Amino acid sequence: xxxxxxxxxxxxxxxxxxxxxxxxxxxxxxxxxxxxxxxxxxxxxxxxxxxxxxxxxxxxxxxxxxxxxxxxxxxxxxxxxxxxxxxxxxxxxxxxxxxxxxxxxxxxxxxxxxxxxxxxxxxxxxxxxxxxxxxxxxxxxxxxxxxx
Length: 148
Description:
This protein has 148 residues and is of the alpha+beta class. Helix content is 37%, strand content 28%. It has helices spanning 3-32, 39-43, 128-147, and strands spanning 36-37, 53-59, 65-67, 70-76, 81-87, 99-106, 112-119. It has a five-stranded mixed β-barrel. It is elongated and about 80 Å long.
């Protein structure tokens, strides 16, 4: 083999190794990314079934039901709602009408089974996706009321 061909072969080999490494890294990122969805997106079947993700919104008033360590409540973005089941101790800041982010999986029955529940830490906190969804829902309600 000529020196020129050796250099080209080495360059192609290095390029293949770097490409394979980048592919493995991107695959790992894709497997570990946890997306956040709103109740409206979940109702539209945009959320994956059987895969971990987060749902954010407000705890709907009057929906918190406790049975020992099992807590059932509903998360809303003021447009759609998602029933949530959580087994464990809730954060101290967890209250009806306040912001919440739950991490878990959506069951085949449409109930979100949370493994972790995070309550907002101050008056201004809300996941960006949930805030956008709530703004869109408020605009939609205003348009519906204006049309009447």
